[in-house]
Amino acid sequence: MPEDLPPDAISATPDQPDAGTEEAAGQALEAVQHAELLRVLSPEYQAGFWAMLNAQKGRQPRPAPLLEIIDTAGLAVPFREVMDADTLARVLNAALALDVAENPQHKPKPLIGKVLNYYAFHKKTTRYSTFEIPKRTRGEMRVIKAPDHGLRRIQRLLLLCLTAAFTTCDKAAHGFVPGRSVLTNAQPHAGRRFVLNLDLKDFFTNTHYGRVERVLQLPPFSLLPAVARLVANLCCDQGSLPQGAPTSPLLTNAVCQRLDRRLRQLAKCHRATYTRYADDLTFSSQRPAFREPFYAELKVILDAEGYQENAQKRRLQLPNARQEVTGIVVNDQPNVPREYVRQIRAMLHNWETKGYEAASTTLRAHYRESKAGARHKGTAPKLEQVLAGKIAYLGMVRGSDSVEYTVFSQKLKSLGFDKENLAIMGILKVIKEKGVKEAIASKQV
């Protein structure tokens, strides 16, 4: 039984949750008759038979076999041509073949349409497990909904297809976009006199199902309404995007395209610059542009797009203080905070003078009290992995030719850490290509 599907899910479909005995028997008889007719028809007449049958039932023609797909970009066209759960399963299985070729440890078991219908329309109450992790603001918690194994696998394959099709991401969006990161989000604001940080309240929860379903029917996805409904049900929970699902970040970027365009226009009218990293909005200007008229226009736009500003997190940073954008200092040019460099230096010194075990013990003691420790339930990674990640991040922000990056890299190598375990340049490449959050998720930072 595919994907450990319960018995009641095999016959269930979104439009026919409990097929009657008589109707099922009629469908079986019809299938036998069609099979017998096809057996006696010559190949050149079979295509005409299917065209006639589909025309009679108001269905679209049967899809042609998928051509060989050699990379994820090739998933875009067949994904847009999906007609139902069965054809979606075929495209997801093509994505699965690409995924398994790149990640042999992943499960190669193919999907079928009934599994997709089951997760989309029938398994509602146990698809996600909910837990909390601390936010950057002390005392606040973030609700995470983690999909179960079967749904997470479907969403990861869907993400490959959605990424291949989504070619119109707004230039202001930098979160969860290939080739963009917290660094590209901060760079446009470097050297600006006034930097304004804003936060959207309940960002994923306020990205509702209806908007997701609608955006999937529009270019560049261009899915049929029934298919958009199927995909939206696979990606949403309780009427909105769950924070914790692999597909949620990309779909928020798709839904927020109009929001980003309107906020870029707002920034242009006030001679400012705008970027967005997930729910973090940043505006910057060389003039005092952020006054009541600006905030009034901003509220009108956010209200129209279905979002609210978290007023408690509004922060206007002036040139005589440290200005940060997504954790990167932007007063002059993109840089890391001084405390970050001091922390790396102290960890290396502790390892060099007190030994690996003592330094690891100190790391574990501090890690339990940190935000990262709370996220990972107090389980600290190895000392060398933490240092390698921090040094790689320093190199990404300051450049691999910076003095501190070179010195710290050489020191780490002299202490016995080499590329047999984890290569610093490899981590740096992951961060540049996929972003910091993706590197953290893959346990490379």
From TrEMBL:
The keyword Acetylation does not apply. Its EC number is 2.7.7.49. Keywords: Antiviral defense, Magnesium, Metal-binding, Nucleotidyltransferase, RNA-directed DNA polymerase, Transferase. SUPFAM superfamilies: DNA/RNA polymerases (SSF56672). GO terms for molecular function: metal ion binding; RNA binding; RNA-directed DNA polymerase activity. Residues 1-23 are annotated as: Disordered. InterPro entries: DNA/RNA_pol_sf, GrpII_Intron_Splice-Mob/Def, Reverse_transcriptase_msDNA, RT_dom. One of its GO terms (biological process) is defense response to virus. It comes from the Bacteria. This is RNA-directed DNA polymerase. It comes from Hymenobacter elongatus.
